[in-house]
């Protein structure tokens, strides 16, 4: 489903060059849910943005469904992203003057799906994320956790095989964080979706099948557990300093 090989990335700021990712290699199978863990500045967002085709790497390759996305032209990549990649942001990124349902339908507008089908698919997903009663409200009328549910529904509306989430619970309290992680785990199970979730919280990582940890731009750990509670992540949770961020 996803294959990252020899991936390195260097940012140029002024005359300074900084290599933030160094020779990253891993493979994710269809239906896996992976936590990408690491302290602030370790390169998590950069890696996620590269995998989601939002930036091009300085070195290495990223295959999604067997296709090398770093070699695609801008147009081809944009089209590929619309069909194959879902993205969930920490800050939801909803459009304030559109209703909940219109926000969820938006990616289908770009795919020219007809209004009746857009509506049907949006309503079905909004029911699945527990917002059947809120479809005609505006984002500002929802709690943070509910807004993140809208953003999750929007990321799934194009039925992408892989969904990337950058600290999806970063702005939420502990109880809401747990509910959102429950939802992602349930969607992973019921829809066989592949999820890559960036987090700096080891409690989130402890609930996924697999943890990939970055340290100073290198892959420091890749624990590949098949089911349930993740012991490596649990051990990390014990060792981690209270303010990893
Ligand atoms: P994380 O998400 O793990 O906190 P990031 O991937 O955001 O880490 O950042 C990794 C490193 O890359 C940091 O040192 C950050 O300052 C640097 N960085 C991120 N984006 C840019 C950019 N656009 N230009 C220059 N440096 C950047
Ligand atoms: Mg980040």
From TrEMBL:
Protein keywords: ATP-binding, Nucleotide-binding, Transport
Family matches, as PROSITE patterns: ABC_TRANSPORTER_1, ABC_TRANSPORTER_2
GO molecular function list: ATP binding; ATP hydrolysis activity; transmembrane transporter activity
Domain ABC transporter: 2-241
Low complexity bias: start-end ranges: 235-245
A Pfam family reported for this protein in Swiss-Prot or TrEMBL: ABC_tran
Any one annotated GO CC term: plasma membrane
PANTHER family: IMPORT ATP-BINDING PROTEIN (PTHR24220)
Protein name per the record: ABC transporter ATP-binding protein
Organism of derivation: Paenibacillus chitinolyticus
């Amino acid at each position: 489903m996803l294959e990252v090989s020899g991936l390195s990335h260097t940012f140029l700021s002024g005359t300074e060059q900084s290599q933030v990712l160094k020779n990253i290699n891993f493979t994710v199978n269809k239906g896996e849910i992976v936590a990408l863990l690491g302290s602030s500045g370790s390169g998590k967002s950069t890696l996620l943005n590269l995998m989601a085709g939002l930036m091009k790497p300085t070195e290495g390759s990223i295959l999604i469904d067997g296709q090398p996305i770093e070699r695609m032209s801008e147009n081809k990549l944009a089209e590929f992203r619309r069909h194959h990649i879902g993205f969930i942001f920490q800050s939801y990124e909803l459009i304030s003057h559109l209703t909940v349902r219109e926000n969820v339908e938006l990616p289908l507008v770009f795919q020219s799906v007809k209004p009746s089908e857009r509506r049907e698919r949006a309503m079905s997903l909004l029911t699945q994320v527990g917002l059947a009663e809120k479809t005609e409200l505006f984002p500002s009328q929802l709690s943070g956790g509910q807004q993140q549910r809208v953003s999750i529904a929007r990321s799934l509306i194009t039925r992408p095989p892989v969904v990337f989430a950058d600290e999806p619970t970063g702005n939420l309290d502990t109880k809401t964080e747990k509910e959102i992680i429950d939802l992602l785990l349930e969607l992973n199970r019921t829809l066989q979706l592949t999820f890559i979730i960036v987090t700096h919280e080891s409690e989130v990582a402890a609930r996924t099948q697999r943890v990939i940890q970055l340290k100073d731009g290198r892959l420091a750990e890749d624990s590949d557990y098949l089911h349930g509670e993740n012991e490596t992540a649990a051990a990390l949770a014990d060792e981690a300093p209270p303010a990893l961020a």
